[in-house]
Amino acid sequence: MPGMGDGINIHNPFVADAFYRTLQHHLAAALLVSVILGGWWAWREPLVAYSTEPIVRRVLRYGLGALWVVNGALQVQSAMPLGLATSVFTEAREGAPTWAQGPVNLAITLWNEHPVGLASLVVLVQVGIGLMLLARRTSRTGAQLSVIWSLAVWFASGYGGLFAPGSSFFFGWPGAVLLYLIASVIIVRREEFFDARAVWTLRGVVAGLFIAGGLWQLRPGTSFWSSGTANEWWRMSREMSSMPQPKLLRDFVRHAGDIALHLGPWWNLLMSIALIAIGSLVWRTPQLSVRATAAVVGFLGLLWVAVQDTGLFGGLSTDPNSLPPLAVLVIALSRGTSRAIRATSPSPFALGVGRNASRGVAAIGLAMAAVGGFALVSTARGSVETTFHIAANGDGTEVVTPAPPFLLHDQRGQMVGIPHHPGHVVAVTFLDPVCYEECSLIGHQLVELRQSLPADTPFDIIAVAANTDDHSSRDVANFLRRNGFDRIPRFHFVNGTDAELERVYANYGVTVHGGGEDGMSIHTNVVYLVDGRGQLRYIMTDTPAPGRAGVSSAVALLRDQVERLLHN
User: Fold this and answer.
1) From the centroid of its chain, how far is CA 214?
2) End-to-end Cα distance, the chain
3) Looking at the predicted structure, is the pLDDT value of residue 183 above 90?
4) 121 pLDDT exceeds 70?
5) 188, 141 in Cβ contact below 8 A?
C-alpha cells in the first residue's frame, strides 16, 4: 500500500548503537572477570608442564577454535540484530516441512523479541568458546560448550539448510555448524581415545561427507541439472557476486558460474563424480600423503572461493561456510595417519611464557562464555528492546542514544532540525508530501497530540519529506493545506535536496523508495521522540488504521511519553 513502510532498515543506526553499547558493557564485564580469574589461577596454581597432546586433537582444537573466533567476529556486523532472523533464519526455514519448522520459528520469535541482547551474547559465547579451545587447559570445557552451542545453532538455523530448495554440498550442506559439532565431539574425548579409533572415526566422517555430498548432488529434479540461466550453479554465482565485495573476488565468482552456464548438466555430473571419488580415496587410503592432502584441501579452497564466495560478505555472514571446517577435518585426518597411531608432539605452550599466554587466553575465553551465559538469562527475563519488535507488534520502545543531527528548511523558509531548541521535546516523523493515505493519518495523530497539550508546552513536530521524486515546495504546501496542518503552530514540514534527504533517511534507519500509486513512495512509518538534550528517547513504528480509533490509539501512547520527558 502506498505510504506504508516496508519495515525497519536492518542497518537502523539506533539499533546498531544500542547493540554496540550493550556489547561494550558485556566485554568490559568479561575483561574484569578474566582479570580476577587469571589472578586466582596465578595464585592458586603453579605453572605445570603439559604432557604431549595427540596431534589429531591439537589440529581439531586449533582449527575449530579459530573458526569460532571468526564466527564471533562476524556477529559484530551492524545488521545482525535486525537482519539475522528476518534474512538468515527465515531463508533457512524455506522449504522445510511443517514438522521441522518448530525450532526455527522459536529462534525467529526469540531473536525478534531480543535482537540487541541476543546479538551481543552470541559474540561473547562464540569468541569465548573459540578462545577456550585455543587454550589447552580449558579446551575440554570449550569443546563441551561447543557441542551444546553447535546443536542449538544447527536447529535454529533450519538444520543447516537441509530442506532449503537447491541445498547442495557446494553451497553449505549439511551446515557448517554440524561439522563444528563433529569436531567438538572428538575433542571432548579423553586422550586415550586418540589411537586407531580417532583415526578410523575421522576417516569415516570425512569419506562419508564427500560421498554423501556427491550422491546428494546427483538427486534428480533439481535445477543443478538445468541448462542456461536456469542452472542453479549460475544463479547462485550471480546472487552471491551481487553482494558488496572486492571486485577481483566478484569477477572470479562470476567466471566460475559461467562454466556451469556453458556446461549445464555435465558440470553437475562432473562435480558429483569428483566428490564421490575423493570420498572413496579417503576411505580406501590408510595413510593420506602430503600431496593427497594438499590436493584435497586445495580443491576445497578453490570451491570455497569460487563457489561459496568465501561466505564472508554481504553484511549478514555468520561463518565462512562449510568448506573451511571440512578442510580442518581433512588436515586432522592426514596428520593422524602420517605418524604412529598414537601420534603425539610437544605442545608449543610447553615453555613458561607460552603457558602464561595459554592461561591468559583461557581466562578471557572462560570469562566471555560466563558473561554470555549471564547475559542470556538477563535478556530472556528482560523486555523487548528495539524497533524490530515494534514494527511487528505496533508497540513502542524506550532508548537513550544521541539523535542524528540534521538541518533542513521548513514550509516557512526557516532552518529547522535536530538538535532543536534546548528544553523542547520534538517528535520526528517521515511523511510523503503527495500521500493521501497513511501519511495524512500519522500527521493527524501528531497534530491531535500537539493540541492535547497546553499551547505553551515546549513540544514541536518535525516531519521530513519522505519522497525522493515529488518533494517540491508546492507538494509540501499542498499536503499541509489539504490536511489543515498549515494552521498548526510548531508543526514543521522540512525539505531539502535529494542528497540531504537521503542522508537523513540513512541516519534514521528509514527506507524510502518509489513504487506507490500516483507518485506516492513506500517508506517506513515511524515516530521518534527526542528530548530537550538531543537524545533519542522513544521510537514507535506506526501503521494507523483509518478513522478516529487509529488516531487516538497512538496519541495516548505518545502523550504519556512526551509528558514524562517534559517532567524529567
Assistant:
1) 30
2) 39
3) yes
4) yes
5) no
